[in-house]
Model the fold of this input.
Amino acid sequence: MVQLFVELAKYIMIILFAIYTYECFAVFRGNDKKKQEKRFRRQSRMLYMIHFVANMVILSVTRELSLFILYVAEIVLFVTIQNSYRMFYPKASRLLANNMCMLMMIGFVILTRIDSARAIKQFAIAAASSIICLIIPVMIRRMKFFRNLTWLYGVIGVLALAVVWIAGSTSYGAKISFTIAGITIQPSEFIKILFVFYVAAMFYRSTEFHQLVITTVMAAAHVLILVLSKDLGSALIFFVAYLAMVYVATKRVSYFVAGLAAGSVASVIAYKLFSHVQTRVLAWKAPLTVIDNEGYQICQSLFAIGTGGFFGMGLYQGSPKKIPKVVQDFVFSAIAEEMGVIFALCLILVCISCFLMFFNIAMQLKDEFYKLVALGLGCVYGIQVFLTLGGVTKFIPSTGVTLPLVSYGGSSLLSTLIIFGIVQGLYILREDEGEANYEETESKPKEKQRKKTAFDTDIEDFNKK
Done:
């Protein structure tokens, strides 16, 4: 009976997620507020239904009361997030809020299936982080001094990365974190946000050549320290974000081409210098030839995706634990194996809709500083998703980057929630700008009408006299 329910549940979840994904892109069509509101409500229903079905499978298989309590706590968290945005930030993007909850929900489900202890820990971090990040939109909207902290962003970023390089702990050949009071922190996850603010603030002041040189030197210091720490995945995220911001700020194709050339040369040098990079490239080029060692992880990932097929094996019917570091770097493979490739494709499309929202906000903002911030954060999010998915599917060599909001990791989860909070604040600013423009446009015809009426009255009085 349980087996039949598990089999039926996977099809139900795929259908529900497909409907949710369709609504993610349907909201971009038209500006009818009532229709959009109905779509957002439909998304919320799909979210809770998928969550319910998945957890019923988990409970039917495990029969653990603690997981039922976790399920109820997750519902409370999602309801709190959605209602808080609706109450305190009526101008905020409902799509981003729904997508944020959906991605976290998928992460909770797959983590509970693989390692319930880590799922509980991830939920605790998510709950605390979500409540804290609710104050970020109002900070972005009210506080105007962020554009003035240019060098503070850069200095803090370089010093924090230097501390990790010198005193950080090594994981899989890279120094990426350190532990304080039993809590492991990965500073690069937070520094990438400061890095975006630094670049945006510098180019807001000026885009002249001397300013470009100064900004590039400080940006290169960030990337160089990450390279020396052998955290090449983060270095690539910083580099791509900077390149995109330089191009948009200066509108000079030559700078973009020069950056690509420098990045290509740096990639070759990194390959020659670091053995773990050579190992990952070898595993990417011919994983089956080194399946017993370097290629084991990527081979297991590809086996999992292939075994799942379009509709998946069903929760608890696959073998995701055979993939090393599955809950962090290769969580997408576990999702594809047990929930299906169709479900996994919908997950990718939800991430793409978030990426499009980031860029949509960036294009419509008039404030140049916040425009660059939205663009930079969009690039950070987009390249991180690309690196993760590209690594697990053998499209590119694995970089050890997590899937935002889905993979296990407190630093990654908190930093992504901060990014979503900042973007929500920018979305509200965009709405404010739109209302101001509308009021200004509406007021102009009225002024003209008042002047015309007064003039006509004077003419009539003159004629009477």
